[in-house]
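ok so for the tutorial part 2 we go from a plain amino acid sequence to predicted structure tokens. step 1 is just haveing the sequence, like this:
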Amino acid sequence: MSIGENLRKLRKNAGMTQEQLASAVGIKQCTLSQLERNTKPISLSLSLEITKVLDCTLYDLVDEEK
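step 2 — the prediction. this is what the tokens look like for a chain of 66 residues:
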């Protein structure tokens, strides 16, 4: 899976909406939507912030074989 697909899956598994996760990491909901659709690249610093909020590893987020 792509990073966006992994992000969506991890967010849903955490029981969070796009709006909730976006607010928790300090971005707009529309930006998170773009990240999940792979239309916007994700920075390392934002990736790390997301992993903290979702209580997962960076590998969980970027693993293309999931």
